[in-house]
Amino acid sequence: MTTATTCWNCGFENQSGAKFCANCGKSQRQPCPECGADVPEGSRFCPNCGIPLASRPQPAAGSSGPVLTAETRRVITVLFADLVGSTGLTERLDPEEARDVIKKFYDVAQHIVERWYEGSIANYLGDGVLAVFGLPAAHENDPERAVRAGLAIRDAMPNLNDHLRTTHGIQLSVRVGINTGEVVAASGSTFDRDFLISDAVTTAARLQQAVPAGTVVIGERTYRLTKDSIEYRELPPLEVKGKDAPLPVWAGVAPLPETVDVRRITAPLVGRHAELGLLRHLYERSRDANLVQLVTILGQTGVGKSRLLREFLAVVRETDNPPMVLRGRSIAFGSQIGYHALLDILRGQAGLLDTDSPDLVRSKIRDWLHELLPGRDDLVDGMLLTFGTGEIADDPSLVRQRLFSSWKDLVVGLADARPVVLALEDLHWADDGVLDLIQLFAEASEGSSLFIICLARPELLERRPTWPGARRDSTNIELPPLRQHEAEQLAAALSSEALTSEVRQTVALRAGGNPLFVEELVRMLLEGSAPGAAIPETVQAVITARLDRLPANERRTLQAAAVIGRAFWPSAVAPIAGLPVEEVPKTVEALISKELVISRPRSAVSGEREFAFRHILTRDIAYAMLPKAQRQRAHAEAARWLEARAGERSEEVVEILAEHLHLAGDAARAAIYFHRAANKARRLYANADAISLFERALGAAEAAGRPAQQLAEISRDRGDVHQLLGHYDLAMTDFQRGLVAARQAGDLRQEAGLENRIGLIFHRQLELDEAERHFTSAIALAREAGERLTLGRSLVDLANIAWDRGRMDPTHPALVEGLTLLREDNDLSGLARALNLMCMGQTGAGNGELAIAAAQQALEAARAAGDKSRTATSLSYLSVVHGFLGRYAEALPYAEDAIRLAEEIGDRRRITYTHFFIGRVLVNWGHWGDAVQHLELGRRMGMARITEPWSYYFLGLAYHMLGDSERAKTIWTEGSHLEARSPAWKAMALLSGIGAARLSQETATLDRLLGEMLAMPFGIFIPSDAETLLPAGEALLDLGRAHDAQGFLDARRAGVQKLDAPPHLASMAILDAQLAVRRGDKAKALQNLDRAVQWSLRSEDAIREWRARELRLTLSNRNDDRDALRTLIQRIASGLTDEHRRIFMVSPRTVAALGEEQHSN
User: Fold this and answer.
1) What is the pLDDT of residue 122?
2) Is residue 195 over pLDDT 70?
3) Is residue 251 predicted with pLDDT exceeding 50?
4) Are 921 and 888 spatial neighbours (Cβ–Cβ below 8 Å)?
5) In a 10 Å sphere around its CB, with 0-12 CB exposed, 13-18 middle and 19+ buried, how is residue 1075 labelled?
6) Collapsing DSSP states into helix, strand and coil, what is residue 725?
7) Is 26 or 1030 the better-scoring residue by pLDDT?
8) Residue 250 vs residues 148, 179, 211: alpha-carbon distances, Å
9) Which one of 34, 234, 717, 903 has the minimum C-beta count within 10 Å?
10) Three-state secondary-structure class, residue 575
């Protein structure tokens, strides 16, 4: 019986002995997830690194394999070194000799790559070597390690050639190509065939093929990451096979002298003053009491250890007795260089150069010691042992003993003479000898002012858990991340305040309080990147290196958590990580101790602790390390967990579910959830989010080949949001697209609803014939489909068309039927719309109280429906009706509430309307400067074409009352040419023309326009009739047409009286008074003007009060009128801007009213 072999990667059952999976093609060598070594089947521990394997991911029941496998996606640096001149070796040498030559080169390359710079040899390719830096474990400076290795291989060729000339009589040269890029590979030390299929590898190979022997050629990304540490020479761009354009390249020359700190941008010290104060205190104590003090500053990469040291040294160097500073740094590569930090000190103090001969090194050290410690020439040989030179004994322990003794004598001797600060950086990379020597320094006898300050990552405590030992004068300072406000302050300083507060906040959040991350993110922004752009490569390298140092289970847990999101829960992580759920909290606790994860005080999941990534960048990079295939399976698992957990409350997490399903490749279900998420956002009036989610729903639905009915629904719903925002063209596109889909699906209900929506767009754009056609079509389709909701709404909309054309009354059959249907079906939003139309119908008929009652019912219905858009509309209608009735104090609060709500939900059309309504009230109320602001704003928004004839008239009137006749004339001229939807609105356009003609004294034009006004039908919309009464009547009197003025007034008198609005009753009384004057009946005129003043005062209508009093002054010259006008003018002027006030106070009408000259209109 043949035993099947289960693929470790995908779970497929292969034949026994299969070397590669027949399903996914992966090698069936079972790699250790930590080191990548082959693991015999059934092993509980890796035979190479010893990691427990019992909890490795296993295929879940019913699944196609484990969610997370040993594969990883990451950025690596590839080195391709190729021997030049080796092809003829087999002709000139015996095969064994040729093999020996190549092996010598392999040995040199392997030693440099793996021993010196901790890279990995991925493959030996004939006479070439492929090396990788970043696999199996990443370092934050892998590109630099690769370039240094390439230069070292180049520089090793002379010595190798000396050997080859002696033994074989030949010499060779090498060329090296180095490139940085992204690959997918097993997360171990093995490199399978898939690894070779990557742009990073092929580009490195092709780069070296295109350059002369002896060249180390560098790709652009590698250059960008290493230009601060390597000297380069720019080369001409290279034409490379497979690339559309020549590649920019550089030749590596040599490593630059080591620098302690390279800063691109600088900022003042932020958030570290307490630590700086502690360091200063400890130093002063050491100096003043002649004590040895050891301080170790612990913190993750980029948290600010070096910056704190730099600030501390700057402070102590400014003291009266500045210390001698000995500064050294351990390095991450070059493990053969022991005591590197000590070498750093000698180079800096004695002025040593890498090019110095051994004799010159000895001489410089001797001179330096003679100057500082006369008589201690005996220390020279001990110092030379630091370089591995001098007299070296056979016993290594004796060498170590002498070196330690010499350095202790040196440092303590210096500290006996003056304060010494010994600063050692990157101590986590130091060899054990340096760590032991530091502890030896710390044990020096009292009487020496020695302050030792060490900088290290927390990994130091993994090597030396009790560091620095139980010494009284030893202190460890843990450097935490900056707080949010401190990180924002740092971002502001780094950008010289060039970033907005919102962007600074985003930077601080992404950086998680790490100053290096803040600096790199700010640098990217200043270079033109968007706030949400990709993670800086420097930051990515730091975090990737840190994650690679984690044990396999911890790293896998972190990656599984990254799939869930910023916050995560053990039961969600377990199935993705392939771990028992009870083990996940233990692993997470380890991540908490390493400051990668935090525990939140409250959990969104009942009965389970909630955790979160400390830095969002850590989450992003852990996620980016997952290959796309693993991400898909992981997101599918996350979606299953979330659905099971949410149950009936899935609406609360619908956006997250949609995202998981989308990333899992389940387009069909993603479309459903994106649609639900979009509608949720729409209900909350998060309009931009809703549109984005609808777009994603459409994309997913189309990708999944969903039915036309679903496409119609999504298009319809997105169109509704576009319509709310006033994006009528986009809304029309969505509705028409939805209509086509609805017809394809044979869905009459959808078709009817979309016909109605298309009609509404045409109505908004004053295309009444098209609107009527679509409303009529919607009614027919709705009747056929039995769709009562659409039928009721479409009947109301059709009635609205009739009203627009001047044929509307509150008993219109379509309105009555529509209202009945909407009430029966309890369609509160539709009912609110119908009642608002009824309100306007009653207003037009002069039934003010009935109009208010209808608008109030509309408001109640809209609020009960939770429809904020209809609520804002109903509030604005209440404002309009109260305004028409002269109840300005009541109208304004309704309008202000309407505009606040409309702004909250993004209803630009309602915002525009309401600005117009507010402006109209303010004009009559005498707040002309404020009125101009509202009317001009509404005019700029341009979303209310239907009401523009009214708005332009009142804007012109406001400018006229301010005394700005030229501006008034311009506005009225524009308003006279506006398209009007009905005779009532046409009358307002004519009124603008009349105003412009009167100001221009164009008698012929004025006469023509008045003729058109007299011919207009009246009684269609009584507030319009009332508004035209005074300005048109006075214009007729200007032309001596008193008879026509009387007829104009008499025809509209009944309607004005029925409306019973004090301002319009005042207008009628003012016109009656002027007609009485022309008949010679002064008493009757004064009687009418008295009534006009009273009506004006009742509604606080400034325009009518002013007009009535100035006319009464011409007839009786009453002092109370003069005083009242002065008071009114002062009230009006107090609310104006300086510019408006200046124009207003010198206008002829104002001057006349103040009594400085006689003037009458």
Assistant:
1) 86
2) no
3) yes
4) yes
5) buried
6) coil
7) 1030
8) 14, 11, 11
9) 234
10) helix
Q: What is the secondary structure of 183-238 as a DSSP string?
A: EEEESSS---HHHHSSHHHHHHHHHHHTS-TT-EEE-HHHHHHHTTTEEEEEEEEE
**pLDDT tens by residue, 303-342:** 889 889 999 999 999 888 899 999 988 877 644 456 888 8
1082-1099 helix and 1102-1116 helix, angle to the nearest 10 degrees = 150
More confident residue, 1141 or 509: 1141
In degrees and rounded to multiples of 5, residue 418 shows phi and psi of: -160, 160
DSSP per-residue codes, 424-465: EE-GGG--HHHHHHHHHHHTPPTT--EEEEEEE-THHHHH-T
- Give the phi and the psi of residue 325 in degrees, each rounded to 5: -110, 120
Helix axes 948-962, 908-925, angle to 10 degrees: 40
317: Cβ contacts below 8 Å, ≥ 6 apart: 323, 325
pLDDT greater than 70 at residue 292: yes
Cα–Cα distance for residue pair 442/451, rounded to 1 Å: 9
Torsion angle in degrees (nearest 10) through CA of 182, 183, 187, 191: -140
Helix (H) or strand (E) holding 1029: helix 1022-1038
- Inter-residue contact 10 to 3 (CB < 8 Å): no
**Domains along the chain?**
1-69 (no CATH), 71-255 (3.30.70.1230), 273-318+338-478 (3.40.50), 949-1153 (1.25.40.10)
What per-residue string of b and e applies to 840-856 under the rule 16 or more CB within 10 Å gives b?
A: bbbbbbbbbebbbbbbb
C-alpha distances in angstroms, 383 versus 377, 621, 966, 989, 991? 10, 44, 93, 99, 102
Residue with tokens 């319509």: 723
Q: Helix, strand or coil for residue 253? A: strand
Residues belonging to the chain:
1161
Measure the CA–CA gap between 930 and 1134, rounded to whole angstroms: 12
What b/e sequence results for 533-561 when a residue is b if at least 16 CB atoms lie within 10 Å of its CB, and e otherwise? Answer: eebbbbbbbbbbbbbbbbebbbbbbbbbb
Helix/strand/coil for 120: strand
Q: Do 868 and 905 form a contact (C-beta atoms < 8 A)?
A: yes
Q: Which two tokens stand for residue 347?
A: 């180079």
Give the C-alpha separation, 1012 to 366, whole Å: 112
H-run or E-run covering 801: helix 788-804
pLDDT tens figures, 715-737: 999 999 999 998 999 999 999 99
Mean of all residue pLDDT scores within the chain: 86
Compute CA 487 distance to the chain's CA centroid, rounded to the nearest angstrom.
Answer: 17
> What integer is the mean pLDDT of 773-795?
95
Residue 597 is inside which H or E element, if any? Answer: strand 597-599
Report, in angstroms and rounded to the nearest whole number, the Rg of the chain calculated over CA atoms: 43
Give the separation between CA 661 and CA 667, rounded to whole angstroms: 7
The CA-based angle 481-486-487, given to 5 degrees, is 70
Task: Look up residue 1108 and give its amino acid.
Answer: A
Query: What is residue 743's DSSP assignment?
Result: H
**Is 32's pLDDT higher than 70?**
no
Total H helices, total E strands in the chain: 50, 17
Distance CA 664, CA 67 (A): 12
Largest CA distance in the chain: 137
3-state secondary structure 928-987: HHHHHHHHHHHHHHCCCHHHHHHHHHHHHHHHHHHCCHHHHHHHHHHHHCCCCCCHHHHH
The reply to whether omega before 136 is within 30° of 0 (cis) is: yes
